[in-house]
Amino acid sequence: MLISAAVAAAVIAAAGPASAADMKKADCLQCHGPLEKLTQLAPMYQTESGKVINPHKFIPHDSKDPAKFPECTTCHTPHPMPPPKGFKDKSANVEMCYSCHHNYTFQKCSACHK
């Protein structure tokens, strides 16, 4: 895994900063994956309402199809490669979640809809 992370970093660094906007999920998952690991992380994102969630979800949530997992750049701004020492991503947002969780509570749909 360490070798693949180093290779991924070298490829991304060689591509230059202009390509950061072109980052795809597969690029991010070379270091931050696999998807299963992300979906099983402990809740770490505090929403505006104060609820702490793990926003790394398939859409719909019961899917396991990698194509149903949003692109990372939907919620995150790509970081420079290599990331600066001590880098913490503060750019993440959950705006996409609010297209379904329109009441900002992150409850299951069935809590409000029959």
From TrEMBL:
Keyword list, A-Z: Electron transport, Heme, Iron, Metal-binding, Signal, Transport
Cofactor: heme c
Electron transport keyword on record: yes
Domain Tetrahaem cytochrome per the UniProt entry, residue ranges: 18-102
Signal peptide feature range: 1-20
GO cellular component: cell envelope
GO MF annotation list: metal ion binding
Pfam families with a match to the protein in the record: Cytochrom_c3_2
Subcellular compartments: Cell envelope
The protein's name in its UniProt record: Tetrahaem cytochrome domain-containing protein
